Amino acid sequence: MVGTRRAFVIIIPHGRWERGRVCGSLSSMTVTPLDGILVVALEQAVAAPLCSSRLADAGARVIKIERPEGDFARGYDHVVQGESAYFVWVNRGKESVVLDIKAAEDAALLARMVARADVFIQNLAPGAAERAGFGSDALRRRHPRLITCDISGYGEDGPYRDMKAYDLLIQSETGLASITGAPERPGRVGVSVADIACSMYAHTAILQALYERERSGQGRGVAVSLFDALADWMTVPLLHHDYGGRAPERVGLNHPSIAPYGAYAVGDGREVVLSIQNEREWKAFCDEVLRRPEVAVDERFRSNTLRVANRPVLDAEINAVLGGLGHGEAVRRLSDARIAFGSLNTVADLSRHSQLRRVEVATPSGPVNTVAPPLRWRDDEFEARPVPALGQHTEAVRREFQ
């Protein structure tokens, strides 16, 4: 329980969820960590929806406000039985309410919802929420216990503050693309890391604010930007530039400052990725995997700094051995030598990976077998709540917040 709100569970037959979680029977009923917390999310795309969906996973009631045509992420693709992969990923466990906040009646309804909320999240275009009467500072003045979270592209000040921002743009602006990819050309990280990073920082900040409110009774304003989130992730390359005089170069599937740490082809056409972290492991790698102990004491390879400086020659020595081994033999040697390694897998390989945990999520188009949340609670199994259809809860919420 947070603040003065009471956490409660309504028991519904057949395992249906309602302001708590019911797992099919009274004996399996559990109260989730954020049970009783109401989140109102004026959100779109990925960053804010991912944040609010993980609050929903923890038991918060999340009311997602959508424009009449819906969150545009619903139309990114239609690969999941007619649903968008992005939308299914970041919108489970929410209630969808369609509002036109430019219309007086709908704006008044949203204001009543916010008045009862614990958390208000928005990631509209710069200035849009404030122009509509839902600026975070004004909301907290009216509702001192409210926690507001503003998610933006570049933050609330500076010359870029009014610019629209999406993942690839932020990967480019922060320099991430310049250190990603093969040597001949920059590349995009293959998933939306700017949105994901920003979302996780926002999620953490909201939880901190809820904890602080438990002690102080006062809400807080939280602001997180995609740019700031990825800039933090870029700290090590930035420090290399500022203090070492040079940013890391693009090295494809190699680590820019550790060697050997990268992908190597084996004899049957597959690739293994291995990582040497210290001199003890380097010696073991040469002795037991390469079976060439003289390489470990070669003057060109006696330290990590020298191995990085002489990476092409080093890689030639490694490839000469691993290229003659099948994948099974390479893996056996690496395992016996206790060298950290992995296989260079495809998405198809991930789909059938023995470590991949899945969960079934109901969607408007039918059940989807998707990735289970990384967080696991001991002695409590996660049960995913459904992905809502557009406007599925509009009428019920209108009645509730009259």
What would you say about this model in short?
With 402 residues, the protein is α/β, with parallel strands linked by helices. 36% of the residues lie in helices and 14% in strands. The radius of gyration is 25 Å and the shape is elongated.
What does this structure look like?
The chain has helices at residues 47-57, 85-90, 104-115, 128-131, 136-142, 167-173, 193-216, 226-233, 235-244, 279-290, 293-296, 304-309, 311-322, 327-336, 347-351, 394-400, and strands at 38-42, 61-66, 94-98, 119-122, 147-152, 221-225, 261-265, 271-275, 340-343, 358-363, 366-371. Strand 7 and strand 8 form a beta hairpin. By secondary structure, it is an alpha/beta fold. The strands form 3 sheets. The chain has a 6-stranded parallel sheet with strand order 3-2-1-4-5-6, with helices on both faces. The chain is built from 16 helices and 11 strands. Residues 1-29 have low confidence and may be disordered.
